[in-house]
Amino acid sequence: MKIWSFVIAFVLVAQTGYALDLAQMQRMALKNRQVIQRYVVNLEKSEKDITTARSGYFPSVDLSYTANSLNRRTLSGESKENSVLYGAVTLNLFAGFKDKYSVKSAEILRRVEADKLHGIRQDIQLNVALRYVDVYELKANLIVAQDAYMTLKKLYSDGENRLAVGLIDRNELLKFKVDLDAADITVKKARADLDKSVSLLANEVDAPISLDELKFTEFKVQLPYGDPKQSEERMLAERSELKALRDAAEAAKLQIAIAGSGYYPRVDLEESYSKYDDDYLNGRGNIGSQGEELRTQVMVSMNLFNGRATESAVGKAKLEARGLRYDLKEMEDNLKTTLKNLYIDYKVSLDNINVADENIKHAKENLRITQLKYNQGLQRESDLLDAITSLSRARYNYVSVNRGAFLNHFQILRMVEGFSEK
């Protein structure tokens, strides 16, 4: 397979300055893009959720101080001025396994955020690759347009000489001029499109990039077709979005158990200390040690009815788990169809490369023969212009075919999480 044979010369020309390849630009994008940092923040937040979930295994320590002012001494003996110092250590012994499942759920949801982070990194690398292909295509198109312009310019110059000696009339020369002006417009538009494409690539990388830095060495290799079956297996196993949905579905199952903990009794152990004194400042009054109390309590509580809130929470968690299973199946089907279609387009593009290359050879030969006949007066100027147009069309077709091949190649890499993040 020949890749870009008619435009490869421009990437072989020695150029000074710093050279950028696709892998370098992808690494720059991964380093510079703020959207990645947003996903990193989400991952860090999920780690905090794990800490919060684990807090249920630790005791709760509370301390309070209350100063009371009454209008008179109460019948129970409470002074008009008094204070209470209170401290308690409470440990939950059982809550329907809520803490256990909460920790597991938080750990799984952290994996979900990690999968999302990996997915956005793959997406950014794909976007850089697609922008890079656009720049490569538009530069190739510019070269094609420039070649056509220079050919027409030479023919127009020859036409002026032929007009001067009476070999052609002015009407024939004007036909060359019309096509020459059209080619000039095409060159200017191609150059503008290329400049805009470089700007879009720089925006994707989030760093300044000039056209001279791009060497396009990646496009000099022969593209592999690969194995669609193996790619599908790898995609189903490695695709970040699928892994995130599977983990989310697993976490949803745990949410059912967490919601169902409301059906179980709750057991708490509490150790408390309180000190009552007949003064605003505890310890300065006359009660002394008689106001102190150390108490150990085991409290068992169970909700018998809460307006069916627990039942509703369990039902909602089950529906969420079921919905995620539907989402997972839908995503798997869509991704498999997308991958299959990518391989169909990829094969067509690869097969058409040789055809497009041969088409260029035929168009070149046609132009050579037509120009010889035109010089001998055996062909009209319209035939010559048609031959030039046919060659340009063949070259543009070649550019388009190769663009499609590389676009499919990079999209397949993204489907199977094939971009390196190192």
Layout of helices and strands, plus pairs?
Layout: H1 9-12, H2 22-32, H3 34-54, E1 60-69, E2 81-94, H4 98-164, H5 170-205, H6 228-238, H7 240-260, E3 266-277, E4 292-301, H8 309-375, H9 381-415
Antiparallel strand pairs: 1-2, 2-3, 3-4
Helix pairs in contact: 2-4, 3-4, 4-5, 4-7, 4-9, 6-8, 7-8, 8-9
Could you characterize what this model shows?
- The protein is built from 9 helices and 4 strands.
- The chain has 422 residues and is α+β, with helices and mostly antiparallel strands.
- The protein has a 4-stranded antiparallel beta sheet with strand order 1-2-3-4, with no helix packed on it.
- Helix 4 (98-164) runs antiparallel to helix 5.
- It is elongated, with a radius of gyration of 38 Å.
Uncertain regions spanning at least 5 consecutive residues: 1-17
- Strand segment tally: 4
Please bin the fraction of helical residues: 55-70%
Q: How many structural domains can be distinguished in the coordinates?
A: 1
Structural class: alpha+beta
Mean pLDDT reading: 90
CATH-assigned homologous superfamily: Outer membrane efflux proteins (OEP)
Instruction: Choose one word for the global shape.
Output: elongated
Radius of gyration, whole Å: 38 Å
User: What spatial order of strands do you see in the largest sheet?
Assistant: 1-2-3-4
Q: What count of helical segments does DSSP give?
A: 9
The largest sheet is: 4 strands, antiparallel
Q: According to CATH, what is the class?
A: Mainly Alpha
